[in-house]
Design brief:
Helices cover 38% and strands 18% of the residues. The chain is α+β, with helices and mostly antiparallel strands. It is globular, with a radius of gyration of 19 Å. The relative contact order is 0.16.
Length: 279
C-alpha cells in the first residue's frame, strides 16, 4: 500500500496530528482498530467501506467517508479492495471545530461526511481530490478545505490545555493534580470535554494510559502481564483484562497472537503498529 502523511501548518497544527493519503490493497479485508485518543475523518475516494463500532452492532456502509470522535472501545474497519482515501488524524480536541454536533454524539458512532458537511459540499470536495495530480496535491486541497471550515469553539483553549497536560503525563496523573491556570468548576470542565473531545477528562486519561501500555508491549519477547498491568497502574489483574478487552476487543494473550500474525505476514507494512487483523 502507498501511505503518505503531511503535518499541516497553522492554524491546523494545533488541532491535527497529520493528514494522510492511503491507496492500494489492504493487508486484510477487515481490521480491528483498538481505541485511541485520536478522532478520525476519512474522505473515501474508492468503493464503499464498512465500519462496525462495538460488538453489539452490525457493520454500516460508508460511501463518501466518515468521521468519528475519540473512541471508547475497539472498532472494526472493512476495507474495499483496492482502497483509496485521504484522511485526518486529529488531536483529541481537534475534530470539534469542523463538525456541527457535540463530539460526544460521534464517540463509537461514526457519521457520514454528508451528515456533517452536506451532500453538495462533500461531492465537490471528492471531485477536486479525485482530479488532483498527485497525493501531495490532494493533501494540500484537504488542508485548504479544513482551514475554510474552521470555526471557533467555546472552551477549546481550556480543553486543549488540559488534554495536552493529560497527554504529557500519559494519563498517569490524577485529573485534580493537573496544573491548569484559572480552571473553572469540574462540572463545566466535564461538560466542555464531552462537547469537544467526546469523553470526560478521566476517560481521556484512561485512553492515553492504555494506549501507552499497549504500544510498550514487545510481542517478540516473553511478557509478564502482572508487571505490564502494575506499570500501567492496574493493581487488579481482572480490571486490567477487562479494560484490555474493551480497548482492543481481545484478551491480552489473543492480542499478542494477532499482533504477531500481522508482523509475520506483513513485515514493515505501512499500517503495522496499531490496526489488527479481524479475520
Amino acid at each position: 500500500m502507498e501511505y503518505l502523511s503531511r503535518v499541516p501548518g497553522p492554524p491546523l497544527d494545533g488541532l491535527i496530528d497529520d493528514l494522510y493519503y492511503l491507496e492500494g490493497v489492504p493487508p486484510y479485508s477487515r481490521l480491528m482498530l483498538p481505541a485511541a485518543p485520536a478522532p478520525l475523518l476519512i474522505v473515501n475516494l474508492g468503493p464503499l467501506f464498512l465500519v462496525r463500532a462495538g460488538n453489539d452492532v452490525g457493520a454500516v456502509e460508508y460511501a463518501d467517508g466518515c468521521a468519528v470522535a475519540t473512541p471508547t472501545r475497539a472498532w472494526e474497519f472493512g476495507y474495499p479492495t483496492p482502497t483509496r482515501s485521504v484522511g485526518v488524524h486529529f488531536k483529541p480536541w481537534g475534530l470539534a471545530p469542523f463538525i456541527p454536533m457535540p463530539a460526544a454524539e460521534l464517540c463509537d458512532r461514526p457519521v457520514t461526511l454528508e451528515q456533517i458537511w452536506g451532500r453538495p459540499a462533500v461531492a465537490g470536495l471528492r471531485d477536486r481530490l479525485s482530479a488532483a495530480d498527485a497525493p501531495h496535491d490532494m493533501l494540500v486541497l484537504l488542508e485548504e478545505e479544513l482551514v475554510r471550515r474552521l470555526r471557533p469553539i467555546n472552551g477549546l483553549d481550556l480543553v486543549s490545555r488540559m488534554s495536552g497536560a493529560i497527554a504529557e503525563t500519559g494519563g498517569a496523573v490524577p485529573i485534580g493534580d493537573l496544573d491548569v491556570a484559572s480552571r473553572p468548576s469540574s462540572t463545566y470542565v466535564a461538560m466542555r470535554f464531552k462537547e469537544i473531545v467526546g469523553v470526560t477528562p478521566k476517560r481521556l486519561a484512561r485512553s492515553y494510559r492504555f494506549t501507552a501500555t499497549v504500544l510498550a508491549i514487545d510481542v517478540a519477547a516473553p511478557i509478564d502481564w502482572s508487571d505490564v498491568a502494575a506499570r500501567a497502574g492496574y493493581f487488579d489483574q481482572a480490571h486490567f483484562v477487562h479494560e484490555f478487552r474493551e480497548f482492543t476487543g481481545l484478551t491480552p494473550t489473543r492480542y499478542v497472537e494477532v499482533r504477531q500474525r500481522f508482523l509475520r505476514e506483513h513485515p514493515d507494512h505501512a499500517l503495522e503498529g496499531w490496526p489488527l487483523p479481524a479475520e
